[in-house]
Amino acid sequence: MNNKSHSLNHLAIIMDGNGRWAKKRHLPRFVGHKHGMETIRTIALAANELGIKVLTLYAFSTENWGRPVDEVKYLMRLPIDFFDKFMPELMENNVKVNIMGFRDEIPDKTYQIMEKAMAETKDNTGMVLNFAFNYGARKEIVSASQKLAKKVKDGSLMPEDINEKVFAEELLTASLAPYDNPDLLIRTSGEERLSNFLLWQLAYSEFEFTEKLWPDFNAEDLKELVADFNNRDRRFGKI
Ligand code: V0D
Questions:
Q1: Pocket residues for ligand 1 (CB within 6 Å)?
Q2: 80, 84, 87, 90: which is closest to 111 by C-alpha?
Q3: Where do the domains of the chain lie?
Q4: Which pLDDT does position 74 carry in this prediction?
Q5: What is the rounded distance in angstroms from the CA atom of residue 231 to the CA atom of residue 233?
Q6: Which of 78, 137, 178, 219 has the fewest CB atoms within 10 Å, i.e. the most exposed one?
Q7: Residue-level pLDDT at 233
C-alpha cells in the first residue's frame, strides 16, 4: 500500500448478529431486528459526530429472500418504522438519506417510503446515510456490465474506452463519488466474510471485526474501532 494517511470519509458496516442476540435471550428474531434498528440511530448520530461523510449500512441482501415469509414481511416494514421514528432527528442533524439496491421484489409501500425519505433529505448537506437494501455485489457488477454492453452496442462507447473509472460510474455507488469506496469496513458478531457486499468498492479498504452483536454495538465500540483504524494507518505511514 501507499504511505498516504487516508482519513475516514466512508464507513461501511455489515450489521450482523441480530438473530443471535434474540436467541441468547430466548426472544423471537424480530425483537433482535427491532433493537438493531435502534442501533442504527445510535451509530448514525455517532458517525455524524465523528465527521464521517458517508455511512453505508448493509441491511438486506438479495439472498435474504430465502428467509421465512413472516420474517421477510417484518424486515420490509423496518424502513417504514425507521423513518416514522427517526426522520425528524435525521433532518435536525442535516443527514441525507440514500438507498442503494435493486427495486425488484421490494413491496410498493416500502419503496415509496424510501423514495420519500430520499426526496425529503435531498438538500441536506451533512452525512449521507446510505442503506444497502436488496443489494448484492455480483448482481451490481453484472448490471454495470449490461449497461456498458448496451452503450457499446448503440455505438456511444468503444470497448477500448472501458476502464476502472468508466466501470465505477455504472455501479450503484457512483452517486457517492468522491467517497464511493469505503475507507473502512466493520462487520459485527464475529463473522469474517464479505457476504456479497461491495466487492468492487472494498478493494483497498481496511477491515475491522468485532465480536459484539449488532444490537449491543454502541458509540464507544465505534470510536474504539475508528481509533484502531487511525493507528493502523499511522503505523503504515512510518514504514
Ligand atoms: C434488521 C439491523 C432499518 C439489521 C438493523 C430489511 C437487521 C435492523 C432498516 C432500513 C433492518 C432500511 C432502509 C431504509 C431505512 C431503514 C432496515 C433492513 C433490516 C433490511 F431506507 N433497520 N433495518 N432494513 N434491521
A1: 15, 18, 33, 36-37, 40, 59-60, 75, 78-79, 82, 99, 114, 117, 131, 133, 214
A2: 80
A3: 10-136+180-230
A4: 93
A5: 5
A6: 178
A7: 66
